[in-house]
Amino acid sequence: MKRFQYHMVALAAALLTAGCADTYVEEYVPEAPVIESFAPTSALSGEDTPIVVTGRHLHAVTSARIGGREVRILERVSNTQLSIVATRDARTGSIELTNSVGTTASEATLTIDYPVPVIRAEELPSEVDMFGELTLKGRYMAVVRKVIVTDGTGQGREAEIRSQDAAEVVIRVPYVETPTARITLRYDEADTEAETPLDSAPQIGIVRLVPTLDALDFDRLIVGRITTLRGTNLDQITAVKVGGVEANIASQSAAELRFTVPAVEGFEEGDANATTLTIDYFDGFESQAVCETIPATVLAFNIWEGVTTFCQNFACLRLESFFSPETGVVYHNSRWRTEVDPVSYGKLGAVCSKNNVPSITEEEYNSVNPYFFFSGNTGTQGNTNYCTLQINSPAGSNGQLKNFPFEANNNSAYRLLPGNGYGTPALTFRYLDPAVANEKALADKVRNLDFRTIDETAFPIDTEQKTVAGVNLKTPVASTNSSIWAPGIFTPGVEQLATPVDAVLLVLYYNYKGMTDDALSNVKRIGFVHIVSANYRPLNGVAPALSDVTYNVYWQKEDYKY
Hints:
- The protein is mainly beta.
- Helix content is 8%, strand content 44%.
- β27 and β28 (286-298) form a beta hairpin.
- The radius of gyration is 35 Å and the shape is elongated.
- The relative contact order is 0.08.
- Residues 1-29 have low confidence and may be disordered.
């Protein structure tokens, strides 16, 4: 740095003396580093010993090596001094420093000594849970490369190292087949890997938390249903399999595991199916048969249980807002334009003449699967202001879809529709009121899954009386808010997590004619949404636009036959 300053002063002096005459200044070219000495001359591997190097042209050093292995530059003190760290990767040999001009090696050799790490066995616990964390305290622990846990069968498995310093190593205990195991350490001796002898390695007890199941409270499986296993240590289960097909685990704790029964190749509609039910546990190393043979039923309608979708604000934790009861898929907002409703996006939302009355061709309408979504909404009912969750028909409002972003960005360029506009499929929702006897009976039927099919026989539509399964539908509504389907449950502006709801909605999906005067004659399919719970999260203390809702859906497979 001093030489650079000297040339700048010389340049200024020359300019002042020569005025406008031609001048020539020699360009400053740095030199390769020069190593004159270093201290100390030996270091202990793994101790991150600072080595102070003295020499010249050291301020611009870009990399350092000890024994050909790159090490960390700790500090560039000045042009004549810098410090480097002899990490555990360093090897006995010369010190090499590199800058933009070249590399220089020291004449003297830095000696790296290799200590033997030792676990203080007296500080080990008597036992540890398999897959739990274990702290190994001892000497020279920073040089440890691997920790091996060897069980009574002689099988050794490498443990995951969670953290490490000179005094201790924290590991996750791997799978162990026996109730005791020995712990050995692998470390470097120069370029050779060494390991502490197994016969002198400390021993520790291993607690194997084997899952134990209570008696099953079901005698058959129903495809699509969430089914519950109860017992102890169920959090050790890594997979539930039906006929060899892995099921989706909906929730899991030590005492309870809930899984969705998957479809298995070869299953046919009806009760004439039999399969196996097994669990894998301990990271899949072990398994047990829950049932060697268990009956399985495929019902004549779609079952989608444990569905969770999120509301519309760009700051929402997740952007998975759209669910189709036809496909059973929860769609991320980014898929709305291309997969969920490309017709609406292609027409910029101009797909309806008014709420739930499509103005597109039958072919265009049928090309879009029915879907619905939830939003956080504010408004007025009579003289009362409300701040509520709302289930929405895509074709029920021309001001909802514009509020959904496809990225976590509030800029209008990231919204599904650039302005007001409808979605394609027309749906309406009817809350089944528990205060009305026949509506409560129907809701209970849904909760208990007390039906075998959804069709015109099981749930008849009377177009003259305007009823569905006896429920009055003279005024079906396009959207239903939580002041109706969860009366008194949510407090506006107050966060309420994991709130039970237990509300059942009848859903009508219309054909391309939509909600004309004779709307029930246009019903294409029906279904039910059982809203189980919600995480009610207000945005800025107002509308709950950050909320998510969990629900079950039961949906007709074939169109009504009038």
